[in-house]
Amino acid sequence: MSPTPYELIGGETALRSLVDRFYFYMDILPEAQGIRAMHAPSLATAKDKLFKFFSGWLGGPNLFIEEFGHPMLRARHFPFPIGESERDQWMLCMNKALDEIETDPRLRENIRTALQQLATHMINQEATGS
């Protein structure tokens, strides 16, 4: 059986590092303050949930589903106004975090592409025309 992306990326340790770096960038980048403001002052719960979601999403233990049920990502994010700007802020932080993980470049790009599609799916606000 082929190793899962979870295994290829480095398992729990690497995934926790990715999530930590993602939220580190969300916390410090002025360009990401729009999405940072959507989170609680402490990012501990968000980090835990994202780690658990990514674990199952990448083929590791289904920690999120075991604790919270089906992710229903769009429904869970619907209370937050997410447009292209918010998606781009999220991806800015994630791209910076992904760039730091030591893994096969093709795997990194496959994950990046899948996350871009996922982030686009979270958009729930229409773009305003100029």
From TrEMBL:
Secretion signal, residue range per the UniProt entry: none
GO MF, one example: heme binding
Domain of life, source organism: Bacteria
Keywords of this entry: Heme, Iron, Metal-binding, Transport
The keyword Metal-binding belongs to this UniProt entry's keyword annotation: yes
UniProt key word Heme: yes
Family assignment from sequence similarity: Belongs to the truncated hemoglobin family. Group II subfamily.
Name listed for the protein in its UniProt record: Globin
